[in-house]
Amino acid sequence: MNFQETVESIGMVIDGIGVAVIVLGIVAATGRALLAAPPPGLDRYMAYRQNLGRAILLGLELLVAGDIIKTVAVAPTLLNMAVLGAIVIIRTFLSFSLELEINGRWPWQQKVSAP
């Protein structure tokens, strides 16, 4: 196995881990929503959405990492870099949107403490 095949395999493994994190996160969030009491101050639905959003965010980060590894190390052509850039932009937008849904604020905004 040469370097290119090794790096491509590593990227695919990271992609697989990203998908597994999302799937397992869905299962765990659903189990928590059905079996555990929600944290104080949140209803069951909001707690479920937050847990689900966190799993999706983590999975997206791993999928982006896998794409970067595969694109940069295996085939760094101008077209592949443009496709990677588009994927990263879309996934970054999704991450910011999920962050807003989970925490009620943009990632760059400071946390507001309760009085």
Tell me the fraction of residues in β-strands, as a range: under 5%
Radius of gyration: 18 Å
Rounded mean pLDDT is 85
Query: Distance N terminus to C terminus?
Result: 60 Å
Along the chain, the helix and strand elements come as HHH
Number of distinct beta strands = 0
Low-pLDDT sequence parts: none
What coarse outline follows from CA principal-axis ratios? Answer: elongated
Number of domains: 1
The major beta sheet can be summarized as: none
What structural class do helix, strand and pairing data support? mainly alpha
Helical residues, percent:
over 70%
By DSSP (H or I, 4+ residues per run), the number of helices equals: 3
Set down the secondary structure blueprint.
Blueprint: H1 3-35, H2 44-74, H3 78-103
Helix pairs in contact: 1-2, 2-3
Tell me what you see in this structure.
There is one protein chain. α2 packs antiparallel against α3. The protein has one domain. The radius of gyration is 18 Å and the shape is elongated. The chain has 115 residues and is mainly α. The relative contact order is 0.14. The mean pLDDT is 85. The longest helix has 33 residues. The protein contains 3 helices and no strands.
